[in-house]
Amino acid sequence: MASITYDKDKLLQTMDAVVVRTMDMDMIWDWPCAVAYYGIAEAWRTTGKKEYMEAMKQRVDQLISLGLPKMSVNCSSMGHCLLSLWEYSGEEQYEVIVRQMIGYLSTKAPRFGDGVIQHTVAADAEFPEQAWADTLFMAVMLMLRAGVLWKDEELINDALNQFVWHIRYLQDMDTGLWYHGYDHIQNNHMSGMFWGRANAWGAYTMAKAGRILPQCYLYPQFMDLAGSLNEQLAGLKKYQTENGLWRTLINDPESYEEVSASCGIAAAMVIKHNPLHIQYIDKATEGILCNIAPDGRVLNVSGGTAVMRDKEGYRGITKTWPQGWGQGLALAFLAAVIEYDSITADGAL
Question: Which residues carry out catalysis?
Answer without folding.
Answer: 134
